[in-house]
Amino acid sequence: SSSSSSSTFDSSLCTDRAFELGVGKSCLCNRFVRPAQDEFRLKHISTVHEADFAGQVLRNSHWLYWGCVERRPGHLCHVVEQTEFVNDKDLRPFPTHSPYFMRCTATKLHASQKLAWVCSDQLGFENDYPKQRAPDGSLLIEGFLVCVDLSRTLDSQIQFLQEVAPLLQKTKRPALLVATKVDCLLDVARQHQQHQFGDCVTAALTAGYVQRLELLRKECRRFRCFISGAG
């Protein structure tokens, strides 16, 4: 609609380096764009055939277009995700002009006839899935979601945040820290309870979760100060 405003949010700022995959970016995007239970996919692979990397969905690029949704009346959100696709022949990343930390803070992406990502099974069978295309031309990124996986140790993730924060500051775009996989930690605690491994195990798991969450909160305050230029 010509009267609607439009924003593009990049969920790609995450703490996974090459081959350290699975911090939950794709599941986060899936939940936001297609929240219905029967439209949610838990597994989104990054190892693909060369032909699929050059196909309609990936278009020889290391970013996904998740589609456009309206979360507030008159305001459209385009969602993209930066990642790293690996060739299934040699398990090496497809060539790219920029390293990940540079790509994930880019404020402009070029799209040409690029289809929205639905799931891994879509590759090679694009006609069997709904088709939504990214806007042709330049896609401007107006905000960033920085994903942190609470099911992992935070040391390397915080290091990544510290490295990427100066680049985010230069973009002068809003950035939010997002905690992922909280449900995974809680599920593990519930499983221990169901199998009667003892309250001490559950307490240790819960304490670990609380400790990570508190560490993330502290880092969030520092991150916010840094991005705003106050620190």
UniProtKB/TrEMBL annotation:
| Listed name of the protein | NO-associated protein 1, chloroplastic/mitochondrial
State the InterPro entries in the record: P-loop_NTPase (IPR027417), Rho-GAP_domain (IPR051978)
Transmembrane stretches, start-end = none
The molecular function terms of the Gene Ontology recorded here are: GTPase activator activity
Q: Provide the Gene Ontology terms for cellular component.
A: cytosol
| Biological process terms in GO annotation | regulation of axonogenesis; regulation of cell size; Rho protein signal transduction
